[in-house]
Design goal:
It is a single chain. This protein is 79% helix and 0% strand. By secondary structure, the chain is mostly helical. The protein has one domain (3-120). It has helices spanning 3-29, 33-42, 47-64, 69-94, 97-128. It is elongated and about 55 Å long. Pfam families: DoxX_2 (PF13564). This is DoxX family protein. The chain crosses the membrane at residues 7-30, 42-62, 74-91, 97-117.
Length: 143
């Protein structure tokens, strides 16, 4: 895969995932009635909404920035914990398969985004090492 399609796909998946998490984070932080209902159903205290909302909002912004790679890694880790926790919490309270599958689908979507980011990082390092842009990519660059 060449760098242009990889870059385009990375930014599309990043924007979609970050927009979803940003919207979710803001509604949680503002403690909307829908968010409060979810917390009641899951049995969590209301103050958890602000913590989760702030974490999602900051994580979405961290995914959109391009300067601090470690911050981006932590955002991916935080979203992983959030989505796995959501799947477990929904599974424990509702027992419905779709309630568990939905967060796991977002986790899979995020994993694709993460792999695309890592591939772009490898491409960038490969090109920075002096490889010409037209040269075919080495086998180690495959995802």
């Amino acid at each position: 895969m060449k760098s242009q399609p990889t870059t385009a796909l990375y930014w599309i998946t990043t924007l979609v995932f970050s927009a979803f998490m940003l919207m979710s984070g803001v509604t949680n932080f503002l403690e909307t009635s829908e968010s409060q209902e979810v917390m009641k159903q899951l049995g969590y205290p209301m103050h958890v909404l602000r913590v989760i909302g702030l974490g999602k909002t900051l994580g979405a912004l961290a995914l959109l920035q391009t300067r601090f790679r470690t911050l981006k890694e932590w955002a991916y880790a935080g979203f992983t914990f959030d989505l796995i926790g959501a799947a477990v919490a929904w599974g424990d309270t509702t027992g419905e398969a779709m309630a568990v599958v939905f967060p796991l689908l977002f986790l899979a979507f995020m994993a694709v985004n993460y792999l695309l980011w890592k591939k772009m990082e490898r491409l960038r390092a490969y090109r920075a090492a002096g490889a010409p842009a037209e040269q075919p990519l080495a086998a180690e660059l495959a995802v």
